[in-house]
């Protein structure tokens, strides 16, 4: 018996990284999965995004857990397309209980343009709105909504990292505020809304030249090995990054009845990154 038997979860950005990890871990607890991902490049992004074969691999891994999966290639920036995709997923799988609004990009380093700002806001902010709002008509009492924030949202604006970095920080801050206020409205319906705020996570969003340059601005073309030396500076605990599994453990908890009275929370999985940077009482 799993904690989420007979439940259905929708997850955006499910083709790889944190999204895939969340899909597999929720499936391992018995939830069937509506897996959404754009599976294409964005003009304003600065590193490769997932491909259709990545989403296919997520679907294979979910099915391996003995549950059903409904994968959909969809751009979370497109409101109508998201509403249609989620409605189709609910029709295919019969219900919806869990929403994980996870899709995001973080363009950093060379190649950023004003399109980087637009694509990041549209994905990391409007994309969260679209996934959550499209899910609301299908949710009943006991449902759980989980949005992926970031330690960046907790540490304030980052205007020094170009339009992509600035938009990323802004979007995650607004997502945190959105979760706070929506939780109040949905509490009346016994629907919970929470945000998880990871520090650096061992995914493609972290492992690319643009992000390496953020951590090693002293080098013209830093490598992963160069950046690994600087990554631990982000955390109080001396680790370079956390794993997707570390975030998924919290997502499973928030999706389950174990967290039935937790709502409106901003939960950090940051190895002490916040307490290291922000004095008590701030």
UniProtKB/TrEMBL annotation:
Keywords: NAD, Oxidoreductase
GO molecular function: oxidoreductase activity
Alphabetized InterPro entries for the sequence: NAD(P)-bd_dom_sf (IPR036291), SDR_fam (IPR002347), SDR_subfam_1 (IPR023985)
Oxidoreductase is among the record's keywords: yes
Short name of one Pfam family: adh_short_C2
SUPFAM superfamilies according to UniProt: NAD(P)-binding Rossmann-fold domains
Membrane-traversing stretches: none
Membership in a protein family: Belongs to the short-chain dehydrogenases/reductases (SDR) family.
Protein name: Mycofactocin-coupled SDR family oxidoreductase
Organism phylogeny: Bacteria, Bacillati, Actinomycetota, Actinomycetes, Mycobacteriales
């Amino acid at each position: 018996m799993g904690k989420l038997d007979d439940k259905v979860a929708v997850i955006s950005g499910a083709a790889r990284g944190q999204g895939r990890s969340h899909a597999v871990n929720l499936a391992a607890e018995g939830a069937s999965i509506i897996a959404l991902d754009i599976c294409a490049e964005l003009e304003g992004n600065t590193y490769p995004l997932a491909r259709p074969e990545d989403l296919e691999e997520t679907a294979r891994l979910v099915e391996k857990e003995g549950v059903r999966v409904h994968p959909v290639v969809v751009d979370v920036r497109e409101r109508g397309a998201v509403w249609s995709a989620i409605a189709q997923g609910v029709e295919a799988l019969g219900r919806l209980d869990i929403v994980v609004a996870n899709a995001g990009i973080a363009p950093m380093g060379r190649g950023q343009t004003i399109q980087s700002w637009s694509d990041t806001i549209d994905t990391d902010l409007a994309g969260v709105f679209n996934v959550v709002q499209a899910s609301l008509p299908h949710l009943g009492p006991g449902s759980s909504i989980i949005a992926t924030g970031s330690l960046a949202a907790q540490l304030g604006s980052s205007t020094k990292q170009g339009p992509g970095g600035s938009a990323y920080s802004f979007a995650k801050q607004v997502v945190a505020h959105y979760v706070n206020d929506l939780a109040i409205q949905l509490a009346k319906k016994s629907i919970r809304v929470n945000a998880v705020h990871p520090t650096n996570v061992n995914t493609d969003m972290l492992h690319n030249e643009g992000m390496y340059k953020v951590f090693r601005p002293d080098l013209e073309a830093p490598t992963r090995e160069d950046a690994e030396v600087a990554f631990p500076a982000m955390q109080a605990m001396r680790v370079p990054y956390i794993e997707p599994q570390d975030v998924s453990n919290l997502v499973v908890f928030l999706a389950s009845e174990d967290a039935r009275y937790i709502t409106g929370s901003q939960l950090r999985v940051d190895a002490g990154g916040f307490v290291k940077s922000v004095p008590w009482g701030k």
